[in-house]
Design goal:
The complex is a heterodimer of chains A (412) and B (520). In chain A, 36% of the residues lie in helices and 20% in strands. Chain A has 412 residues and is an alpha+beta fold. In chain A, β6 and β7 form a beta hairpin. Chain A is elongated. The model of chain A has no long low-confidence stretch (mean pLDDT 94). Chain B is of the alpha/beta class and 520 residues long. Chain B is globular and about 115 Å long. Chain B starts with a helix and ends in a 6-residue tail after the last helix. The chains are: A alpha+beta (412), B alpha/beta (520). Chains A and B meet through α7, α10, β21 and α12 of A and α13 and α17 of B.
Chain lengths: 412, 520
Amino acid sequence: MVPELRFKEFEGEWTEKYLGNCIDLLTDYHANGSYERLKENVELLEEENYAVIIRTTNFEKKDFQKNLLYIDENAFNFLKKSKVYPDDIIINKIANAGATYLMPDLNRPVSLAMNLFLLRIKKEHSARYIYTQIKTKEHLLRALASGTGTKTITKQDVRNFEINIPTLKEQQKIASFLSAVDKKIQQLSRRKELLEQYKKGLMQELFFGKLRFKDENGGDYPDWEEKKLGNIVTLLKDGSHGSHKDVPDGKYYLLSAKNIRNGQINIDDDDRKISEADFNAIYKNYSLKENDILLTIVGTIGRLAIYKGEKNISFQRSVAFFRFENVYSNYMFQLMNGNAFQKELENRKVVSAQPGIYLGDLAKISLNIPHFEEQQKIANFLSTIDTKIESVNQQITQTQTFKKGLLQKMFV
Amino acid sequence: MAAEQKQKLEQQLWNIANTLRGKMDADDFRDYILGFIFYKYLSTKMDLYANEVLKPDGLIFQEIEGHADEALLKQELKSLAIDKLGFFLEPSELFSELARRGNAGGKNNFILGDLAKVLTHIEQSTMGSESEEDFGNLFSDLDLTSHKLGKSEADKNELIVKVLVHLDEIDFDLENTDSDVLGDAYEYLIGKFASGAGKKAGEFYTPQQVSSILAQLVTVGKDKLKSVYDPTCGSGSLLLRVAKEVKTVNAFYGQEMNPTTYNLCRMNMIMHDVHYKRFDIKNEDTLERPQHYDMRFEAIVANPPFSANWSASPLHMNDERFSAYGKLAPSSKADFAFVQHMVHQLEENGTMAVVLPHGVLFRGGAEGHIREYLIKEKNYLDAVIGLPANIFYGTGIPTCILVLKKKRTDAQNILFIDASQYYEKVKTQNVLRTEDIDKIISIYKNRITEEKYSYLVKTQFIASQDYNLNIPRYVDTFEEEDDIDLKTIITELRELDKIGKITDLTIAEFCSELGIETPF
């Protein structure tokens, strides 16, 4: 048995082993004593204390900072059989039975909560390798879960689980390669977070004129002019207020606020469709043009998109349309996404059955508008950062796919 | 009453409800149970009072039937009771007596006829006396001939006997003046069975927590009230709640359009020991035919039907309640008509508090006009309090409380409170906890600004907002983002770039050993 992709220096077959033969320890919370004794000696505390008691939710949410529970030193010592160390393998035994996790280093004493198995791998193996190996066949472990109500797996299931194992050296090498890839994914995610922060910081400065561009001769642009939103638009409307009959196999979409996400219009085949006659009736008095800005004004308020000329789509009243005169559309798109404008929306939100904003009220929002060229510079700068963030985002996805490919080829 | 005792009582009442359930709608059996509870209350009251009067003679009430001076004693007792209690019952007409007869020997004995007679007799006993109006037709919803009780007379009788026997087992502890077992039982049933009712008309039973806030708002700094008034008083729980907040209330006034609820209200008053001379509840449409038009009240509370329809007839423009404003509330939304009515009835030194849907804060048109008049011309609006959504049974609609006064001490400012985020979720309902209520009241009393919770707003500023009272305009709950230090971010990005390159190299090395291309 040999994997498809392998470091050159290694040869020879991998051996099949029971997980039970690779571990020094397989235990759980209840190994420490009877229910009564546990109840007497262990109290879970929300306040910071001597040791963390690690629970399924921490692993599921990958959150080891917030939402932690603690125990005091006495309880920690009472639970001496289930102390948890970094690189221990944790397996869920109830509900989400079979889900497998690797304990990270929290730099403090950690104890095991209920509903989990704790596995400690023998020194002659790489814990990280074995964790990854289990992870690649996790579906097989989960399939062992049984029970009429909540499904559980037993210690015996865990012990009898078969894994394939190369020499320790090869295990270590595979493990360190995969951690390098994991590290890369982490770095990219952090990079994305930082870029998003960077953009927010820039917006705080750029939209308030704290950081200004110069014109082509290095001179200052004119002062900004205060204007009401209603005075710089040639179109300010919301979608259809009418009730329309669904035409499931029609080709005219009637979209709503939920279709406006991530700065664009997202159309799904399941979205509502209406008749051609209804569609034409909606657009009787106006039409959408490229670069019009769409804003959600009912339900989740404040999401934006730029209309790119998508065909055959119309909107319900939960979406408002803006067309600007002598103002750069992209500038408004960036500005309206900014914190200050979102706050204006929040203040104007009215709540009856659903939160909403009146168009007339929107028109009253006052804005400081820079010179057109300065608008272009600000908007284009911010869009470039958006592009950058998006490319990092794609890199993250691609690296994750890369890792998946590696797991498929490097394991048997 | 102790919580445990209360729970036990509620359990017993629920059991009785279950006896009747299935035979009729919740609304109907509520009326029956409440009617019988009331009858039991009157019986106990009568028995206690008669025994007190008879004590010097060494007699008890049950013994006077067959006594040598029976006629004379009865005559005497009757005139005393009518004056003191407002009604009279014969010893044979007492609740316990009928329950006993109905269940004598473990068999069902026919008492339906007697029961009907007793109930009519209670109402008739007050004829020609001062209490006539308060007792008249009180039992009209307790129809003992209704087919809902059973097909045959025997079936009906069986059911009624069961209910009476159940009720007879409950000790309402009337001798103890501090105890309010009966009142609590009453409120429990009203609350329990109101949950499904009235939806169409926008009528919702006011949850106790909301009643408590309204009651506390109108009694700030007072321990005595000359009068309290509720123009849409329903079963009267709001009026009674106000009474709990102060030492004394001299008189209770209310108006209720629905005759059944109106009956409940009168019973509720009597059972909470409000003497018949101290309350005046009328059964009429408040907006169309106000019954206390020329009176002024020190405290007014109301939870009017939300956005109800009303006539909005142009004739109302001649009515003093509405004429000064220049516009009438729209026919599809009576909310402001009720506010105007309440303002009209409010005494110069009085306070009113009313629960309304959020729309009254920001809707334009005639409502915007009335809002502006109340603030700009009259300066009556004292506070706006936003409540959490989903605290009423049967509607998730978010509501607010308006507090108005004719003489305001802090006349330059209006206080805004956003209490919408302070509640506890209990099953599907949101509930205001005691601490949430206390917080509202303490901020209202002290008129203070607290970040993300309340704001004292200058009236001029409200003018600049076109008299739009929408709470987020004044109480800022928006999560501000932190000021971002670009320098730190830039440094960290550059650092990350550097370490990233090292990671890339490591990955590249591994990849080359595997004989695959590196992605980085």
